[in-house]
Structures are given as C-alpha cells and as structure tokens.
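At this stage, I put together one protein's amino acid sequence and its backbone structure tokens, which the following lines show:
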Amino acid sequence: MRRIFYLLLGFTIVFVGVSLIWRWASRRRQLPCPSWLAWSLENPLSDLIGRTTVTLDRIGLRPGEHGLDVGSGPGRLTLPAAERVGPTGVITAVDVQPEMLARLRQRMEEKGVTNIRLYQADIAADHHLPPSSFDRAWLVTVLGEIPDRAAALRNIYRLLKAGGALSITEMLGDPHYQRRSEVLRLGQEVGFEPVEYWQSGLAFTQNFVKNRREQ
C-alpha cells in the first residue's frame, strides 16, 4: 500500500512539475497541443471529457452563420459546428500547426463535409482575414497557448461583425488554464462586453459580445 502511495505521489509531482514548466514556457513561445497527440482529440472519450455538445450549445451557433474556430486542432468542435450552421453557413478553422489542419482536412473528406475553410495562421499576428466577417468565434482551452493573448483577442474583435459573439472555455487541469478573472480582464480591455457565463465541474465558459455600434 505504501508503495502505491509513493507511486501516486511521484506521478502527481511529475505531472504538476511538467504542467508548471509547460505553462511557463508557453508565455514565451507558442506551445499548442502537439500534432502527434491529435488522436486524443478524435474519439468519443474526448467528446465526453471535453463536453463537446455542451460547449457548442454555449457558443450558440445558428444555421447560416459564419463561425471562427481558433485553435481548431483536428476538428473536435469544428466538424459538429459545421453541422450546426448547415449548408448555408461556414466554419473557418484556424490553427498554427499545418499537421492539425491536414488531419482535419482528411476527416472532412471522410465525412463529406464541405462547409469548412482551413486557414493556417497565428491568430495574434495574422491580419489577412477580412474584418467584420464572422458572427461567432470561440477558443476552447486555447487562449493560454497563445503568448500574446491580448493581440489575439484584438484580432478576433476586428474579425467579428458588430454584435458578434466570442466564447472562451477553460478547463481546470489544462497546463494553459486561464482563470475567469484573467479571461474577463483580457476581454474587457480589448473592448468586449461580458455576457453569459457557465460553470460546471472543472470547466467554465465565458461569452462576450462586440459592441453593436462598431464595425
């Protein structure tokens, strides 16, 4: 029994240590989930743990809307989001890793999905997407992976239509976890107005809206 206790204690110490180092390093360079771990985001268990359906409900996508999935990875949310907006809507999947987008493209072809646009970019630095072109944007356990989070949110603000919505979801245990107070601070400094908030288990979702008078 003592041996099991020490093994669990050692595992916990290593896990916490790695998480803290990863969190520190991600403040200095972009360290998203490695592409070789894409498989871990493509199974029913990841949907259950990540509460994919609940998260999409909170994002609030409607048929015909244009959505921006920032840090899409292999498409855990992108693919069901595309189904929600339907054939008259479009989802743009942005990721900094070409390998993640290649995997998403493969999954799109397997499922026959045609209303997703793939875009490789650092959302904090790339300004080629047209302004005021999206109804909704979301970052799900992604914000902390971006070293310049303020620049990323400013760019998303630029990309949203007047009255457009931003949804940020964070999960405790993620090495890049952002506290709600930090999410609120960053969002409001950019100009977003906080609206709906949900807390459940180890995760929370904070929604924002862009000023309806701004373009």
